[in-house]
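Notebook B, p. 112. Complex prediction, attempt 2.
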Amino acid sequence: MKPNVHAPNVNSSNTHTDSGFEAKILRLVKGARDRSAIKSGEVDAILDPASGRAILLPDAQAALLERKARFRSLVELASDGTWEQDEHYRFVSHSGTAIGSEWTGDAGILGKTLWDLAFDNSSEIDWQTHRTQLEWRAIFRDLEFRCIDRAGRLCIISLSGEPIYDRQGQFKGYRGITRDITARRQAETAAPESDRFARATLDALATQVCVLDAAGTIITVNTAWRVFAASQRGIGADVSEGSNYLAACDQIVGNERVDASAMAAGIRQVIAGERELFRYEHFCDAPSGPRWFMASVTRLHGDAAARAIVSYEDITDIKHAEQLQGLECTVARCLADADNTSAALKAVIRAVCETQQWDCGQYFCLDHAADVLSLNESWGRPVAGVKQLMEKSHGAVFRPDAGLAGRVYQSGQPLWILNGSKGTRASQTALAHETGMDGAFVFPVIAEDKTIGVLAFASHAVREPDDRLLQAVQSIGHQLGQFLQRRLAEDTLRRSEARLRRLTELSSDWVWELDSHFRFTKIIGTGMAGIGDILGKTLWELPTIVLSDDEWVKHKSELAAQWSFCDFEYAAVLPDGQNGYYCISGEPVYDAAGAFTGFHGTGLDITQRKRAEIALRASEARWRDMAGPSSD
Amino acid sequence: MRRKKKSDKSAASAITPALVMRLYVVNSAPNSLLAIANLAAICKEFLKDNFKLEIVDVLEQPLRALADGILVTPSLAKLSPSPAANIVGNLSDKSGVMRALGISGYAP
């Protein structure tokens, strides 16, 4: 290719512009190889030994011009303006729209330093820092300045600059670019605002929440999740942003394996769109105590990355309330089904222990005669420590004003000592004496507003009782108290009845009962022996009874009138042909509704007395007969 | 503008002396860019790291080029090992360049 050696028409210090360009080139290049290279178009520049300059050939010159234009274009694309400062940092040139009076609100910036301009976000300290940068000839990037333009709008300008040196290395000033970043900053400010709102909302939730992508990777979690993960353990509790929740569930072993598998399956179904909601209740044996959670997995729409939201709601309080409600029902059922007081106490203590995960329980009641609280009944888990404690407690008594049980008995208020407790309502010493365990819970058994005993539970798992537990033990204490009081009354009545029966047996020979038709339904005792089978018959239906018609009429009328009668005497022919004499007393019986149901009463064999009376009367009669004639 | 490429002290370089070159160019001019590319390809293919190359922009350092006897660019000067050589043009004649640099003696 023949070289184009005409004079380039460019404004460059390194280019040659006179009309003798071709001749000069030919004069400069004399070597054959150089000429050949020029002729073949492989040369960019020729060095002029006279001037010490490089003379660009037209193609090279055009390429450089093109490069310069391209660079300028890129600068314009990357910035909104360019500027230059002199060695005193005064603006000497600027171009573009983002610099000058449009954003400074000033007539112009030429001849002014940056700190002469009206920026509202730079303090004197900031300017000192910037001046130090300049004095150190440092390159500065993205200095941001805020100002109000002529239209009253906020403008945010970013300046970047680098020092300029001449060929001798002398500092000549700074040059750089300017960018109007108002829109970008406003957008950035707006975006974090919405993010902050979403973040604050998420963090304000008491429920633990995490957001998963399609692969099950956790995109974000809220504060409640982080707190829980830091203090608890459970399904996925130790996973955080960036980790895969499904993988964490799959890796769980032990007791929580089943729950974790169920959760993972539910999450996968939600992510796959097979269901919108998955809920799963599970138990977690956390270090702070047993906890229950209701896990919910919901499908997330409208977000490319996030697919599902996993939330854990702590339902421990609800579960406790349900348990305590169930316990109250169980206690009521135990008391209703129990055959005796001992069985009832044991059943109640066991129910409380099993529900509250306590190791053992004891019921102390006041022995009025000895004025001490003595162990009445107990139940404990079949483990070594508990057995030892139960054996130790057997036969133990406490004064009503001493010890944990005594204090509860006197105050009528529950007391508890927690495991390794500090702030408790009873001393550790008192507890150790009675239970030998770390924690205890003692509450009164109350009947008719009076404490009749105390229930003491000991365990290594006693924790601060909440209001619901206190409410439950109060209810249980009252239920049990009423039961015991009722049982006590029943026992008293039973003993009284037995005593009365015995007295009746001592004062009569038999007890009888009649139905509403005056037929015998019950005979207890032996006084009626000799008069045959009488059950189902009325007295006047008995063939051996000897009684006058008038007396029968009188007796029947008394029965019909439902009158009580006393010492009604009659005779009956005994198998030996002699008469036996009997005396009965009775009273009408009514049922709960007031309806007449018959008579009941007692009977007495008065044969001996009557025979003696008869004999005495006969003797008196004989004596009267004998004395009669003489007295006449 | 100056760019230097230093070779590593490999076992090969310990046996064969490194080729020291200097390329005079006008930065961004088409033939200069072509010369740099051609020379880079030759060095990569045949010299591995066993060379030292300095690139001199004559617009920035014209006097240095004149002092080295360079009148046109691009020009490649072989400085060592002897004999010295000077190649003018965009180095598109690969065999000629290799011959001038004595690269045939450098087995790749």
